[in-house]
Amino acid sequence: MIPTFLQTVALVGATVHPMTPGAEPAPATILVSDGRIQAIGVDVEIPEDAEVLELEGLHIVPGLIDAAINHDLEHDPLYISAGVTLVRDTGNRLAILEQRVPEARDHMPGPDLLVAGQPLAGDMGATTDSVVLRSGRDVQGVLGRLFAELQTRELDLDYLSILEGLPPDAWRALIPFAHERGKQVWGPLPKLITLKEATNVGQDGMLGLQRLLPPNKRWHQVEAKDLAPQIALLTAKPMHVTPHVQVFGRILTDYSGEPEGLSWMGPHYRVAWSADRRQWSQAVVGEVRAATEKAIDLQRGALKELWLAGVSLVPGSAAPNSWLVPGTALLDELDQWVRAGIPPVEVLRFATAKSAAVLGVDADRGTLEVDKIADLVVLGADPRQSLGGFRDPEIVVLRGRVLEREELAALRDGLAKRQAAVLAELSKPIEVSPPKVPEGRVVLDGRADTSAYGQLISTERFAVVEMKDGRTAYCTHLVTPETASETGRNLNLVMVFSGNQLDGFDLSIQPLENATKAARAVESGAEGEAAPQEEGQPQEEGQPQEEGQPQEEGQTDAQGEPADDASDQDPGVIVAPEPKEPDPEDIDFRTAVYTAQGARVGASARMSIQRRLNGFPVGNKTADDPVNVVDISNVLVALITAHHFPEGVSFALSFEGEALEPYVDRWNLVVKPSDHQLQLRTSRGWMSFAIDANGAPLAGVRKAGNAELHVAISEVRTFGGAGHPPKAERVFVQPASAEVGAGGQTEDE
Prior knowledge:
Blueprint: E1 8-12, E2 15-16, E3 26-27, E4 29-33, E5 36-41, E6 51-54, E7 59-62, E8 64-69, H1 76-81, E9 84-89, H2 102-107, E10 112-114, E11 120-121, E12 131-132, H3 136-152, E13 160-161, H4 168-180, E14 185-187, H5 195-201, E15 205-207, H6 228-236, E16 240-242, H7 246-249, H8 267-283, H9 286-308, H10 328-339, H11 344-358, E17 376-379, E18 395-398, E19 401-404, H12 405-426, E20 440-452, E21 455-467, E22 472-480, E23 489-498, E24 501-511, H13 512-523, E25 594-600, E26 607-613, E27 616-623, E28 629-630, H14 634-644, E29 648-656, E30 661-671, E31 678-682, E32 685-691, E33 697-704, E34 707-717
Parallel strand pairs: 1-6, 2-7, 8-9, 9-10, 11-12, 13-14, 14-15, 15-16, 28-29
Antiparallel strand pairs: 1-4, 2-3, 4-5, 7-17, 17-18, 18-19, 20-21, 20-34, 21-22, 22-23, 23-24, 24-25, 25-26, 26-27, 29-30, 30-31, 31-32, 32-33, 33-34
Helix pairs in contact: 3-4
């Protein structure tokens, strides 16, 4: 195996497919240095210190472009192994902007990224990562502030991505807003926007072929002639189209045995994919299978007609949706294009040169030319005849870095081993200590697990405290486990209420590794003598709070370690050294210690929010809306909803993105009269909870984007008292036949 990084590489003797207009494939030498193509030709002078790769009989093509994925850092090796060297994310956490830097891309290594940041949506159909635009006014306000903030951080988006729930007036305002800033707008068309209006107003790209269908029709209900009017619209007023044919095609795939790709996926993907696999194998039979086959045939036919009509087509895989394995899913999509009747070489041109031009990156990518980025794929088969060589490329050159077949296989094997280790670790119970609580009497505490797709994603211990000054504190210690790409986190939250008003909160978030170090320090006696514990109560930590403020937590230094000099302090207090201002370029938000404190501004309903990173102030914001809850723990949300929320509108504070920026969302509470179940509608989904007479949650469900989270209570204590009983009309009444926590929601809602 050749070294991982080389200053100069000469690829000699292969047939080079430049993908430039009029250029025919021919044997040539490609000289690569400093990550770019330095020369191409038959008489290229090769420096003496160059590494020479003899590739006679092989074929060299540009790296592939997948224009529609949801990026997950752990999937980087899978894209590279399929010859995909550039991907475009269709919407993610804003933290994805930090993953574009060369250091992050070279670490795994992974393909280069084009990003839209957070997807744009309306109240309905939003995901946990989306920006909610309720009206046209929000476009200038919300997005205007977002772009201004990105500019101060010297960051930018490559384009804007929308979801189909975006309101029509917001969509109409968004298109000119984006175009004025030189940004394209892509996504499925909003539900109430016709294809004709979309082409007239100027949406740049459309995902999927659904809008070729006549109104209220499905694929198995139409014939090819029924699609002609919509195809004509796309011909008359151009719009780029990403067809997503394999989104249907995957349903008919044979998933018997142990399907390829499952071992590379994280636990949550595995559970969801396996569930879909069972459903498809049972449901897609007989007439349903015939209808699905007809739908795929019609889509292939429509794709060919779009190609013949000259419509701009941009391949995208929609990975990692179920059984769309990152990397190979794009190859499956391209196979569908070949089956539609488009010659392989033309399909390859769409996935390289033409995609690069549409996405605005053709100055650096898409063709094999001097001075372009050295993203190359060496194939054993002629791509003019078949694209099958991409499934097992001989070599992938990524930004000048040579990755041979053996190294690509090692990257995939390493990913599979990491996923197996994560799966084994997640099968173990998560150890969580009691939460930090202020002085007072604990009236209710317990333990809860939250799962998604049947997989545990967090465990917490919670407590309700009647404080000595008559206020009520809701406390939790929540732990999220580490995965192959995500850092595990340790969260502590205290919220203090006077009546139904949230007076303040104290939140800390740190990596599990830091929390473990702090716990070991306490066990070794570094923290001093613990205060005596009252019967039946969790251990108290930290110092007494000032009047009108939530309790501050015990302090740690920037690494989460106890400070050295704690001998003269009150028992239970850890003193940190004076924080030094961090260099923003040096901060890794995944490993930093983040704290946030909130307090009411005088007698107003507004809340001041102060945030610190590794002990240094990073922001002081004031929420204009009256904050009713901090949305960190689903259990605390249920408890607080049962006791303090009015029916109707309330406001929830969350912390968004990698930088954990404060965000206030509008919620709406309905108490079902039939069983007193609590139902909360948020901008990104809904929640449903059942509370018993002691005030403890019986069960809960939360729909957030595509995920459905289930909350299960495993322990509850009331210490011989009544617990924390809610109003009688909010105590759950078990119906004769109903599923607790189902919420009565449907997919369409």
